[in-house]
Specification:
6-stranded parallel beta sheet; alpha/beta; 45% helix
Length: 735
């Protein structure tokens, strides 16, 4: 799950602005403290981008540099916006607006519509597809269910790219879209759909953005009112903005540049909806003096998972690939990814379910396991396979947690019990602690200490209530003096923020729906040609987007990663399928593929303004040439298991020297040099200051402080007396 929902702990609010910065790595701290001018954060998967930008907002608010009401943070899903609000609340910056583009635009449109147009805002259309079906019927065009869905998507794409009906055929041809019907027919349905909306006085989801843009463009007085309200903007997932959203952002900004954008071109997976990474990749062109921070320290995944993820992108082509980020795992080593080939799809589902059961038996919670597939139609066979081995599951993309009937009912009951108090409510007689009170109340609605057998609606209801019980237990552990009324207030806050507790059950989700989430164990299934990449991915750009989609799937895993495919669809079928081309050179037994090197792909760092660029190359093993992802390996500049030439006598002298320096300083030995840095010195045996400085872990201050001694030891000489009186307390020990 996401970092916000992975744990239901309730951290204490930092007691000062400086305390907000505690625990941030150097690059995250750069993001948090860069509060003026345009800032672009290029953040790889698992590098803590949400942490960086929420701490940035909170630091600005807590230090008095930003007023909460003047900040607008926008993202793309209600879940992501809710997570951001929850984190900001925990950091003491609860007054900040964090919304989706559509939610922010709708609020402004509702407020300004009477002044700009007059009357009330037209009703928002809930089911666009029904009106599209009527438009097609009026045009005497027959659409089956799949064509209806695809034509509706084409209309949405046209609107977010600001394409009118008569221009649709030319625009579709120019962009190489795979259209579901004749473009002229789609244009006709599109135009009729717009006419039907006007006749009925309704607007759709895309109209919210279009109309807001229109109002802000035409009414400069309204635009200035919005700009007086919001002075500082933060945009998450900036690689997913459409041309229409970019235009709205520009109107919000006006001629100011107080903007922070965050994104990763390698996670662009929504181009079919009009999203484009061009705005992210061109940010430095539009804002030459922007500060660019690259986050590549991966705190989510093991080096084995990161190595596979980097390998996928190393074969990628295109502009997004040229700007890829090489992730560097900050975690301990874990198990290698597991590859599975099955005779048919039912066998693949059964094998996956068995492995899920084994992981659960070994102690991995069901809520920390996910099965991800390319299209939703693949879920049914896995639902059945999990049910057959008694594994609970939940479908991602189903009803929101706080909108489930049993959760809403539980909230009402808990609110009533809190108002009545333990002495007035017979359910709570003799029950003092909050978790027991919650169990007593929810016990009347189906919660039991043990889950019901099997799956289905009864089990789903129990899982929802059990999640509330666990939330109560965590809440009281963090706040022992809390009352039932305090818990009810917390539930209300979480419902408003859509910050749901964890529901026990294996997650079944499409790769698109998994974006932004993470689990301890991930099973990527159905990885056969025709499904990955999908059959209708014809152009190079479409195939590269499929590669990025698989990359997103791989980077959802923290520790355990399984990749599988089936050779045929049904038992007894001809085994004509082959595993996805994206795994060539990565899975055991496949032919090696030469990686595509890029001068602009690289690792973390900070670039300040035009002409002050600092770029680091990719770290590669000096023995075998493999890209290094483990922090310890990067220090050595070689794979852990690659052969090396170690001067053991020098290594021993260096260790003795380090122990003496640490004694004189009164600090741990690693404050002088870490074990890995010492080992790297003994392997490289540097002869000059430049050679010593090139070793990771030997910074400028340490070079000046210890360089002469180290070089003397490397030359076989006795070190001179090093002045250790200088304060090293501000130096950060290497991890």
């Amino acid at each position: 799950m996401t970092a916000a929902t992975h744990s239901t702990l309730f951290p204490q609010v930092p007691d000062s602005a400086d305390a907000v910065l505690d625990g941030l790595d150097p690059e995250q701290r750069e993001v948090a403290t860069a509060l003026s001018g345009p800032v672009c954060v290029l953040a790889g998967a698992g590098t803590g981008k949400t942490r960086a930008i929420t701490h940035r907002i909170a630091y600005g608010v807590r230090s008095g540099l930003l007023q909460p009401a003047s900040v607008l943070a926008v993202t793309f899903t209600n879940r992501a916006a809710g997570e951001m609000r929850g984190r900001l609340r925990q950091l003491g910056a609860g007054g900040v607006q964090a919304r989706t583009f559509h939610s922010a635009a709708l609020r402004q449109l509702q407020y300004f519509w009477p002044k700009a147009v007059g009357g009330e805002l037209p009703r928002l259309l809930e089911r666009k597809v029904q009106v599209v079906a009527e438009a097609a019927a009026r045009c005497r065009i027959r659409l089956d269910r799949n064509e209806l869905r695809d034509v509706t998507s084409e209309i949405e794409w046209a609107k977010v790219t600001q394409t009118v009906p008569e221009d649709y055929p030319a625009a579709a041809a120019k962009t190489g879209r795979e259209v579901p019907r004749d473009p002229a027919e789609i244009a006709l349905v599109y135009g009729t759909y717009e006419q039907l909306k006007r006749e009925r006085g309704v607007i759709d989801f895309e109209d919210v953005l279009l109309l807001t843009v229109g109002v802000l463009q035409d009414r400069h007085d309204i635009a200035e009112t919005v700009r007086r309200q919001y002075h500082h903007f933060v945009v998450d997932e900036y690689q997913d903005v459409s041309p229409l959203q970019q235009r709205l952002l520009e109107l919000w900004l006006g001629d100011r540049d107080s903007l922070c954008v965050v994104g990763d071109a390698s996670q662009t997976i929504y181009s079919f909806t009009g999203a484009t990474p061009d705005h992210l990749l061109n940010f430095r062109v539009r804002h030459p003096h922007a500060t660019v921070v690259k986050l590549v320290r991966d705190y989510r995944s093991t080096p084995q998972v990161v190595h596979l993820a980097n390998g996928l992108l190393a074969q990628a082509r295109g502009r997004a690939a040229e700007h890829r980020l090489e992730l560097v795992s900050q975690r301990d080593r874990g198990p290698e990814p597991v590859y599975g080939e099955y005779a048919d799809e039912p066998a693949e589902a059964e094998g996956t379910a068995r492995r899920v059961r084994e992981l659960m038996d070994s102690g991995v919670p069901a809520s920390e396991i996910a099965i991800l597939y390319r299209v939703n139609a693949q879920s049914e066979i896995y639902e059945q396979a999990l049910a057959d081995v008694g594994v609970p599951y939940q479908l991602r993309g189903a009803e929101r947690f706080f909108e489930r009937p049993e959760v809403r009912e539980a909230g009402l009951l808990l609110r009533g019990a809190a108002r009545a108090g333990g002495h007035s409510d017979p359910q709570l007689a003799g029950v003092d602690d909050v978790p027991s009170q919650v169990r007593a109340v929810l016990g009347t609605r189906g919660w039991t200490p043990e889950p019901p057998a099997g799956s289905g609606a009864v089990r789903d209801r129990w899982e929802s209530l059990a999640a509330l019980v666990r939330l109560a237990e965590d809440f009281v552990r963090a706040r022992p003096a809390a009352t039932l009324a305090d818990l009810v207030a917390e539930l209300d806050e979480r419902a408003n923020a859509q910050h749901a507790p964890t529901v026990e059950g294996v997650t079944l989700a499409s790769l698109h729906a998994a974006k932004g989430l993470e689990w301890d164990a991930v099973f990527l299934v159905g990885l056969a040609e025709g499904m990955m990449p999908i059959t209708y991915a014809k152009t190079d750009e479409q195939v590269e987007e499929e590669r990025r989609l698989l990359y997103v799937g791989v980077t959802r895993a923290r520790v355990h990663l399984s990749l599988s495919w089936a050779l045929s669809r049904t038992p007894g079928g001809r085994p004509s399928r082959r595993p996805t081309r994206f795994l060539n050179g990565l899975r055991p037994g496949s032919a090696a593929v030469r990686p595509v090197f890029s001068a602009t792909a690289g690792q973390g760092g900070v670039e300040r303004g035009a002409g002050a660029r600092r770029r680091r190359g990719s770290a590669r093993c000096r023995v075998c040439g493999r890209t290094l992802t483990d922090a310890g390996e990067i220090k050595l500049m070689r794979c852990e298991d690659c052969p090396c030439e170690l001067d053991e006598a020098l290594h021993e002298r260096l260790r003795d020297w380090r122990a003496e320096q640490a004694r004189l300083l009164g600090q741990p030995a690693y404050c002088v040099f870490t074990d890995k840095t010492l080992l790297a010195i003994a392997e490289a045996v540097p002869g000059t200051e430049a050679e010593l400085a090139s070793i990771s872990g030997v910074g400028g201050r340490k070079l000046g402080k210890f360089g002469a001694d180290v070089l003397a030891l490397c030359a076989g000489e006795d070190p001179g007396s090093t002045d250790v009186s200088q304060d090293t307390s501000q130096e950060t020990p290497e991890k």
